[in-house]
Amino acid sequence: MLLEVEGLCVNYGHIEAIRDISFGVEEGTVVTLIGANGAGKTTTLKTLSGLRKVREGKVTFDGKDITHLPPFERVKMGLSQSPEGRGIFPGMSVRENLGMGAYTRRDKPAIAADFDRVMALFPRLEERIDQVAGTMSGGEQQMLAMGRALMARPRVVLLDEPSMGLAPKLIAQIFSIITEINEQGTTVLLVEQNAAQALKRAHTAHVLETGEIVRSGSGSELAGDDSVKAAYLGGDI
């Protein structure tokens, strides 16, 4: 496993947000976490990024224990995140935001190659390259957040609610790009409220309820599971 979580427990004060969860992410795959609001999905990603402290359990990346490693060290190892709510730098240009994604890197030719890759994935960003990011639409800002995460050249990219608040046409475009990112060789761990779209693209999927994994399987298995359909897919996919 490229990324492995074992017996993870995370608290917010006295509240247990994640309770003894374990799962793995194989290199080259798309793994998705689905569940209701408050299930622990975003907390899981923040913990993997190093933004939340682990109470119990272990996180391993490429065979190395990263449980207590600072976030910037995880980025340098190849783990980057596009956060919920996008988290762009609104007063900076698109170009400057993308540059921040490569902040820990010094390999200028490779950075330039990754910049070209992001432009190919997100042609809209190339059109807006010198525009102040805070003046862009929600969809464009989501593309920028994903592009910035890719500028770190991650082996695993954590995507937190990339379709949130977007129009249906843009949602389809974002998910198509996620598939392309994976086909280009980047492993994806996806947290997403749009369970139907997420499960269509997932090699492996897990359902979280109140901080625990209650069901796991392939994306197609969970998409065909009657209880998952009823809870997350409106009875149908």
Overview of the molecule:
The structure is a single chain. With about 240 residues, this protein is of the alpha/beta class. It folds into 2 domains: about 1-80 and about 155-235, Rossmann fold, CATH 3.40.50.300; about 90-155, no CATH class. About 40% of the residues lie in helices and about 25% in strands. The chain has 10 helices and 10 strands. The strands form 2 sheets. The chain has a 6-stranded mixed β-sheet, with helices on both faces. It has a 4-stranded antiparallel β-sheet with strand order 2-1-4-5, with helices on one face. Helix 3 (about 95-100) packs parallel to helix 6. The longest helix has 16 residues, at about 170-185. The protein is globular. The chain starts with a strand and ends in a 5-residue tail after the last helix. The model has no long low-confidence stretch (mean pLDDT about 95).
